[in-house]
Amino acid sequence: MHVLVTRPKGDGEKLKAQLEQLGWEVSLEPLIRIVPNEIPPSAIDGASTLIVTSRNALKTLSASAALVPATMLPLMAVGPGTAALALELGFKDVFEGPGTGAELAPEIVRKSKADGGTFVYLAGDKLAFDLPAVLTEQGVNIRRVVAYRSVAAETLSPRIAEALREGVIDVVVLMSPKTAETWASVAPDVAKPNDLSGISYACISEAVANVLRLRLGTQNIIIADRPNLEEIFIVLKRLAARPEAE
């Protein structure tokens, strides 16, 4: 089975190596480039709690002058991967959320009602879920800091374009709606519908799958039961077990 990983370069290289250890052929084609913004210490002035729903936000924070004062604050992370990275960076008081922004929101509301204060949300320029809007409606004092920008690829590399035309890509892994939107924009530019019809998609969420259904009309989709990398591995193993993947 030949898997195409579309994550940004750093995370993508790590995922590629993990999948290759399972015996699959893996190609990497980052569809999103993460561009960090400067995070000065003043960005978290007055914060009582930090909120993070992306590892990319923490990676940007780790290279900034705001890291040391940030680690003195409680941090609410969207899920286990983000929480684990926060602990690695030196945060001591880390709340691990259920896995999505929508599920994290009620936990933030509860903490706000109990403790008050100002919540500072370190996030990207594009939000898959508008957490600030939801929390503001619930009376939470929240301030968003744009930690990084996501820049979409404008085309596929010649190597991947040729692989698509030759029909050697079996599965594409898509980890965000923006990545799915980018794929739906660039893949049809280099390959005909028949070239793409045999591809299956491992999607981290229903929102990602909906982009593919709307933009490409494909139904060759398996969605992770939970929006995390461990569940994506389960999806890929299911796909690899199908007779046509052998």
From TrEMBL:
Its EC number is 4.2.1.75. It catalyses: hydroxymethylbilane = uroporphyrinogen III + H2O. One of its GO terms (molecular function) is uroporphyrinogen-III synthase activity. Keywords: Lyase, Porphyrin biosynthesis. Pathway: Porphyrin-containing compound metabolism; protoporphyrin-IX biosynthesis; coproporphyrinogen-III from 5-aminolevulinate: step 3/4. Residues 14-232 form the Tetrapyrrole biosynthesis uroporphyrinogen III synthase domain. The keyword Lyase applies. It holds the Pfam family HEM4. PANTHER family: UROPORPHYRINOGEN-III SYNTHASE, CHLOROPLASTIC. Belongs to the uroporphyrinogen-III synthase family. This is Uroporphyrinogen-III synthase. It comes from Hyphomicrobium denitrificans 1NES1.
